[in-house]
Amino acid sequence: MVEARGPQHGPARPLVVYDGDCAFCTRSVAVIRARIRPDVDFQPWQALDLAAVGLTRRQVDRAVQWVGIDGGRAAGAKAFARMLSRAGRPWRLAGRVMGVPPVSWFAAAVYRLIANNRRWLPGATAACAAPLPDRR
């Protein structure tokens, strides 16, 4: 299990938390590490003490999560944009542009489309199925 640093100390680098049971997500992280090489740490949520990093199971079930060194949080496309902004050119520029409307609106829609359909994408397994929304 990965030990998170306390809230007043924060992680040494931003943390990107993803679904380690999803083959599509795991493969995507491997490609990002190899090709984009952002200055972040990646951890599957299954290897973390979620409470120690300020996340809940519901949050990590719904989207990739960003835990910044300043304690800032982001999810989904916003987390992806922040991750890209910690990489070299041209990725840094792409991350910044993704954070500005109307591009951010489009990025959020594309992220949700991919997240909701990841079980159908190359490399996916049954574990990639997104959880059903609460209908209470």
Structure characterization notes:
The chain has 136 residues and is an alpha+beta fold. The protein has one domain (15-126). Helices cover 37% and strands 10% of the residues. It has 5 helices and 4 strands. It has helices spanning 23-36, 57-62, 77-84, 91-98, 103-116; strands at residues 15-18, 41-44, 65-67, 73-75. The chain has a 4-stranded mixed β-sheet, with helices on one face. Strand 1 (15-18), helix 1 and strand 2 form a beta-alpha-beta unit. Helix 3 runs antiparallel to helix 4. The longest helix has 14 residues, at 23-36. The termini are far apart.
Indicate the topology.
Layout: E1 15-18, H1 23-36, E2 41-44, H2 57-62, E3 65-67, E4 73-75, H3 77-84, H4 91-98, H5 103-116
Parallel strand pairs: 1-2
Antiparallel strand pairs: 1-3, 3-4
List the domain count as a whole number: 1
> How many distinct beta strands?
4
Strand order within the widest sheet?
2-1-3-4
Tell me about the biggest sheet?
4 strands, mixed
Helix percent band:
25-40%
- Global morphology: globular
Number of helices: 5
Q: Return the structural class.
A: alpha+beta
